[in-house]
Amino acid sequence: MTGNAVLPLISIKTDQMLVCQGDRRPGFLSFSINSRGDHPLVRGEEVSPLSIHGFQSSLKDSYFVLQPGCEIQVTMVCKQRLQRLAIATNEQRS
To answer: 40 vs 6, 8, 20, 48, 69, CA distance in Å?
Structure first.
């Protein structure tokens, strides 16, 4: 794990299939990028290489499958922090 307390960054590398499922932390928005290897499956759908995904704040859980040789980076951002940034940059939506 790298990053810091405000923006932790977790790197996952696998040499075998890895299935990940669990609850998302309330109040945080998690997202990831596939940086190497075969396309991971997120909720059963293949994601494009080097795409950023996971920005769905309505989801209560995470489910993804990594193929052997896959590497992803995952981070979590506090939703309040993003809201403050939106207000500060006048990007708030109704």
So the answer is: 26, 21, 11, 8, 10
Averaged pLDDT for residues 62-82:
85
Residue 38 DSSP label: S
Helix (H, G, I), strand (E, B) or coil at 55: coil
Is the pLDDT at 54 greater than 80? The verdict is no
Structure tokens at 54: 């996971």
Instruction: Let me know if 64 is exposed, middle or buried by CB neighbors in 10 A (0-12, 13-18, 19+).
Output: buried
User: What's the rounded Cα separation, in Å, for the pair 44 and 65?
Assistant: 8
Name the pTM for this structure: 0.66
The span from the CA of 86 to the CA of 80, in Å, is 10
Residues 72, 55 contacting (CB under 8 angstroms): no
